[in-house]
Amino acid sequence: MTLKRNFLIHLPSSGRPGDLIEELDGMNRDIIKMTIDGFSDESRILKDQNILFFYDWMDDSRMGRVYIKGIPGYEHFVLRKAYLPMEFPHFSDYRFIIYLSREVRENDNPIFKILTIAHELQHLLQYVNFRNECFQVSVLKGFFDVRNDYTNRFYRNIPHEIDAFRKSKSIAIRIFNESEVSSFLEKRIHDTQDDNEREYWENLKSLDLEHRFNLTSVMSELWEKYESEILSLVQQLETKNQNSELEKKEKDFVEAYEFYQAS
Length: 263
Description:
alpha/beta; globular
């Protein structure tokens, strides 16, 4: 399989815009191709996209992130944390970026790599296939951030994250098998010293793929639940903005809401 128009690269974390950008080694390049093929029918959609893969990105607290140019909620995280494509003129036409940590590049276990890459690629597919829901989830995340509602903001309670976890696990099982994936997850849970990371892997292991999950219907219910409160908060912040400067998370929320309304 040839990834047409995709440039697979790794940027050293000590580098600066303009420094040498290296092509990925064969193993990581092959893993990305294998992961995309694992999406079966949807792999055609991914192969048609212009995707840039950045390894060794600056925020090593996250294994992966997806950036979508021009979309609030998919842009804000990269400020001061990672390089944007416009910093490299020869990559400025790339709309989608998958940021992956150094560990994803250096870890020798292909299951670990595939679980992470598939998760981020599913977020990209969500944007392609469920654009309205993606705009809504950006608003909801901002809404929960402004309210300091860390329970609802937690990744395992966000429908798009649940969907991405489910897809990444199903693809890993499709490429390997359920026993191998389960063994990997059990070892990862046992070996990690970080409570948050352990919870991340435990959440992935506990997912029941037999249980049906419909992203559109789940998002519809969640949006209906909070829509009136979202509108009320937007109005409050618009009034506040007339008298004082909004905090960054407030600005991000209002921007995401306005973008959703205009879309």
